[in-house]
Amino acid sequence: MNLTDILYEKTNGTAKITMNRPKSLNAFRGETVQELIRCFRDAWDDNEIGVVVLTGAGDRAFCVGGDIKQRESGGYGGNGGLTGGMGLEMETLHYVIRNIPKPVIAAVNGYAVGGGHVLQVLCDLTIASDRAILGQKGPSVGSYDAGFGSAYLARIVGEKKAREIWYLCLQYSAEEALQMGLINKVVPHEQLQEEVDKWCELILQKSPTALKMLKASFNADSANIEGISQLAFGSLSMFYKSEEALEGKNAFVEKRPVDFSRFRK
Ligand SMILES: CC(C)(COP(=O)(O)OP(=O)(O)OC[C@H]1O[C@@H](n2cnc3c(N)ncnc32)[C@H](O)[C@@H]1OP(=O)(O)O)[C@@H](O)C(=O)NCCC(=O)NCCSC(=O)c1cc(O)c2ccccc2c1O
């Protein structure tokens, strides 16, 4: 596969997908999302693969969400269509992570923030380094991921905690994330790969059909969130054209404090 933003390797039944833009803390742009979708589809279609690992390149980040520096008033470019006018085919990416009939493990090696955090939320299982920092950021930068990013998050950590995560945009340590049930396990940073390998091995010893059916049954209960997701991304593409959204983006790029006060009037 010809890939620029992703590293993709398949070894002994495991497909490893690494977001590879470390200079931007693995923030995603249109191409990154397209390549992620292609890799998940390849792993879906390959009968030798029984488990998928999603991680980030480098030592600092899993993924910090959309590449804000590339965000324009109409989103991230593109011609509309599958990207809903935003240049990021996020709904499809969320779809393939949720619906690939094999367990997906997020190996969170650093920051998992914004849309990057939503990716770890969507994975079946998460193992994090003790250096990981997790949280949402959208309302600080004029954005939101209000489909699976909010409604499914609330199923995982409960309504109160999910609202805190989104309304306050705090950053949580791996240990705090573990305590609130947001992730499955925390390990010393150096042992992350080893632990992920162990979990993959355990999964690969199991009946693939049983795992496939279990994943489908877990998903069934939250399937209606897909409709909420369509509404949320549809409204986001309109919101991105607003002065309010641009204030969030510009403040981040200009490295200055954001001021949304005029939009409360
Ligand atoms: C993550 C941080 C808290 C890290 O802070 P720290 O101080 O440790 O590091 P720096 O801030 O110096 O970052 C290093 C370097 O990386 C650049 N960078 C960081 N985040 C991004 C980013 N999101 N986009 C582009 N570049 C980024 C940073 O500018 C530095 O580069 P220099 O050249 O200046 O050295 C902190 O970095 C932080 O808070 N980052 C912002 C994270 C954020 O707001 N994420 C949410 C973005 S919006 C989003 O995720 C999103 C999701 C979706 O699903 C969408 C769907 C459809 C459309 C749009 C979507 C969308 O926008």
Automatic annotation (TrEMBL):
Per its database record, what is this protein's job? Answer: Converts o-succinylbenzoyl-CoA (OSB-CoA) to 1,4-dihydroxy-2-naphthoyl-CoA (DHNA-CoA).
Q: Where is this site: Important for catalysis?
A: Y76, Y240
Q: Give a Pfam family name.
A: ECH_1
Keywords, A to Z?
Lyase, Menaquinone biosynthesis
Provide a GO CC annotation, any one. Answer: cytosol
Family in the record:
Belongs to the enoyl-CoA hydratase/isomerase family. MenB subfamily.
* Protein name from the UniProt record: 1,4-dihydroxy-2-naphthoyl-CoA synthase
GO:BP terms for this protein? Answer: menaquinone biosynthetic process
| Reaction(s) this enzyme catalyzes, per UniProt | 2-succinylbenzoyl-CoA + H(+) = 1,4-dihydroxy-2-naphthoyl-CoA + H2O
What organism does the record attribute this protein to? Neobacillus novalis
Report the transmembrane regions from the record. Answer: none
Q: Which GO terms describe its molecular function?
A: 1,4-dihydroxy-2-naphthoyl-CoA synthase activity
| Top-level taxon of origin | Bacteria
Question: Pathway it acts in?
Answer: Quinol/quinone metabolism; 1,4-dihydroxy-2-naphthoate biosynthesis; 1,4-dihydroxy-2-naphthoate from chorismate: step 6/7; Quinol/quinone metabolism; menaquinone biosynthesis
Q: Which residues bind substrate?
A: Y76, Y111, A112, V113, G114, G115, S143, Y240, K255
